[in-house]
Sequence to fold (220 residues):
Amino acid sequence: MLAPHPDDFDAIAITMRYLHRQGHEVHLAVLTSGANGVDDGWQGKHGAAEKAALREAEQRASCGFFGLPMERLVFMRLWEGGDEQYNEQAGRQALRTYLHVRRPDLVFLPHGNDSNWTHRRTYETFHAIAIEDGLRVHACMNLDAKTLSMRPDLYMYFGEEDAAWKAQLLRFHRSQQERNLKIRGQGFDQRVLEVNRQAAVDARGPMPYAEVFELQTFSL
Fold:
């Protein structure tokens, strides 16, 4: 998966766990540190480096609970620094190298039609590489709280027991859990699960929750 921030993997954790249990080799690339998502002074952290380390530690703890081997987790810290043009070129090359080394058949990432700039940038960079390099790959773009609109092609339905497991996984991201409680009056866990609940309602699905994806296929 190409995750713009630490915690984006967890937002589609039911699908990731299904693939993992089926024996597929799941890899996670976290593209940015997500340092801006930590309130200044939270847990005594100040400055981008401390906040980045905190968020990456949360992701490691989450992946440990999930059961993802740590050698399949990579923090890339793309697009960080003052020189925007250099960051764009360097970020694209780093992501290109990552994809060519692993040669995935299936890539999960956010939808390009999203109000979050880093989500859009992730999709746009991946899309450009896939077209330029002639990658043969299926892309699954997931419904997120900030997705503006998308075509629902694939659904992963799940029930209350799996929802409780997913909520526990999401709460490993304590900085986001407490930030959402303060800003929205709703924890990060419940915010993500509400997206899943509404998706299942909209689809009139057979179970109370669903992770939803739009499928895009790239080929030579």
The chain has one domain: 2-218. The chain has seven helices and seven strands.
